[in-house]
Amino acid sequence: MQDPVDAHVGARLRQARLMAKLTQEELGLALGVSGERIRQYECGAERVGAGRLNRACKALNVPPTYFFEGYEAPATREVLPPPPVSVAPDLQDRQSRLAVDRLIEKILERIKDERSGS
What we know:
Blueprint: H1 4-19, H2 24-31, H3 35-42, H4 50-60, H5 94-116
């Protein structure tokens, strides 16, 4: 599946290349890749690495931000709380684990009593 950022960066690469009046082969030569690789970048099929993107900035006379201008990130999903962590998993000695278990039981009893109004 195509990453939306890669597709956007690729489209901006194509736009900058056309404004500079360069062919895919000419830009590829400047970036050290084939014209076919430039085509793959432009259609978003391949991700442009940071170093190569930096060389593209110089070859096309655009700032790095140019490639991300106008990009709208997809809406983020709701962040879920982390899963519960087991209580004191690193306690090695059985007595300590039992003491922690008893403490938890007492806390739960107190909460239950407070909720029931006792």
